[in-house]
């Protein structure tokens, strides 16, 4: 009877002793936001530190639009004040968003003109899609590994020529 319970008890004890070590290892692989500034952000090639700086600049831009002083304030303080200003001045916030959408549309029109795309009467989304398709669309873009394979093939061909 005792023999039947020895193996499961030892297995449970082993798993319980390994759990804190596994949790510590998991924390090492996934640091908190303040611990590592060089982790890549999910968008593009920005690091976490670059993204935080970018976000702070955007908050400062919104704060100056609403007339909020930005000197000596942390990002959290600025965010709270901007949120309060957005709630208090909904019309002004809508005007700010419309102004930035117009800037984006103008930028897309300039890029589309440079690529020979007619821009008259098209929305920002239509222009973005046309530019995306002009540059190959999703299907025709080389995946990173495909690009690496092509580079390796070129290097192999160069070695074979010599």
UniProtKB/TrEMBL annotation:
Gene3D superfamilies: 1.20.1270.30. GO terms for biological process: generation of precursor metabolites and energy. InterPro entries: CO_DH_a-bundle. Residues 114-162 are annotated as: Disordered. Residues 114-137, 145-162 have a biased composition (Basic and acidic residues). Keywords: 4Fe-4S, Iron, Iron-sulfur, Metal-binding, Nickel, Oxidoreductase, Signal. It comes from the Bacteria. This is Uncharacterized protein. It comes from Paenibacillus arenilitoris.
């Amino acid at each position: 009877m005792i023999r039947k319970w020895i193996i499961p008890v030892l297995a449970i004890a082993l798993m319980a002793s390994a759990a804190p070590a596994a949790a510590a290892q998991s924390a090492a692989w996934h640091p908190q936001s303040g611990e590592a500034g060089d982790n890549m952000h999910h968008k593009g090639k920005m690091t976490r530190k670059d993204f935080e700086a970018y976000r702070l600049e955007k908050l400062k831009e919104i704060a100056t639009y609403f007339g909020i002083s930005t000197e000596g304030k942390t990002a959290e303080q600025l965010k709270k004040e901007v949120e309060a200003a957005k709630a208090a001045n909904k019309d002004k916030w809508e005007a700010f968003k419309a102004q930035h959408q117009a800037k984006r549309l103008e930028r897309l029109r300039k890029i589309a003109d440079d690529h020979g795309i007619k821009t008259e009467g098209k929305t920002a989304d239509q222009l973005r899609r046309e530019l995306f398709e002009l540059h190959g669309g999703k299907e025709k873009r080389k995946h990173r590994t495909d690009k690496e394979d092509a580079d390796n093939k070129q290097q192999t061909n160069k070695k074979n020529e010599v």
